[in-house]
From TrEMBL:
InterPro entries: Kinase-like_dom_sf, Tyr_kinase_AS. Gene3D superfamilies: Transferase(Phosphotransferase) domain 1. This is Lipopolysaccharide kinase (Kdo/WaaP) family protein. One of its GO terms (molecular function) is protein kinase activity.
Length: 259
């Protein structure tokens, strides 16, 4: 029989039993909202809806790293959520994390648990729409990144449209909640000229990029036109580099022999 140990952490003592049993509960309960490299389920626990993200497909190298050198993705997500909230940056309330380890303490699987906060929109709903509201959201997001995320030193390495939740407030302003936290890095300082490049994965369309960049520039005391050009250049360079790397790696794939 395979050796297995379960380590968990939560500040909510009412969830102790749930955390202990999570690896088995996750297999049979909850509503699946994402299932690819990692799986996300919403599970009702005593009338509370919790969002559970399972980090499943871990390479052997990363298993060793997360076991002895680095914190697991689940633990990093929890700690990052706490840091974001301390700085007044919204993210679903962190509940805890679970780590499942096998023989020799090697990590097999980890889970990050937070409250379930779906938001009214996600950024992918509006990023390429042509409407007054979409424009207002993009401008607000540019200001948010320039005045909240980057001054606090947070750099999201996977700032894609699906990782930004949006809520419209009663005064017609917008609140942004950041998810997929394990790829956020804390830096000592992010200059506006570097920070603007963090928006490059949101879209490849120049108009929404320009709207966000101009808003970012105005909020950080920089030139709007210059920052719009800079962000579009960042995006084009990044896309070109990705295509080049993909084609380069493709040349090493073994070709199937035809009979």
């Amino acid at each position: 029989m395979a050796v297995r140990s379960i380590k968990y952490f939560t500040e909510d003592v009412d969830l102790d039993e749930f955390m202990k049993d999570l690896p088995e509960v996750f297999k049979r309960e909850g509503t699946v909202i994402k299932d690819d490299r990692n799986e996300i389920r919403v599970i009702n626990v005593g009338g509370r809806e919790l969002c559970v993200k399972a980090f499943n497909k871990i390479t052997l190298f990363n298993r060793l790293m997360y076991s002895w050198v680095r914190a697991s993705k689940a633990k990093r997500s929890y700690k990052t959520a706490k840091l974001l909230l301390e700085k007044g940056i919204k993210t679903p309330m962190p509940i805890g994390y679970v780590e499942v380890k096998g023989a020799c303490g090697i990590l097999k699987q980890s889970f990050y648990i937070s409250s379930w906060e779906p938001g009214e929109y996600i950024m992918s709903d509006v990023i390429e729409k042509e409407s007054d509201e979409a424009r207002a959201i993009l401008m607000a997001f540019g200001r948010f990144m320039a005045t909240k995320m980057h001054p606090a030193g947070f750099w999201h390495e996977d700032l894609s449209p699906g990782n930004i939740l949006i809520t419209k407030n009663s005064n017609h302003s917008y609140t942004f909640s950041i998810i997929d936290l394990n790829r956020i890095r804390k830096k000592k300082y992010i200059s506006p000229r570097i920070g603007i490049g963090n928006l490059k994965k949101l879209t490849n369309q120049p108009i929404p990029l320009s709207i966000m960049a101009e808003s970012y520039a105005l909020a950080s005391g920089n030139n709007p036109a210059g920052f719009a050009f800079l962000l579009i250049a960042w995006q084009m360079f990044s896309s070109t580099l990705r295509r080049f790397v993909k084609r380069f790696l493709h040349t090493f794939k073994p070709k199937s022999s035809k009979k």
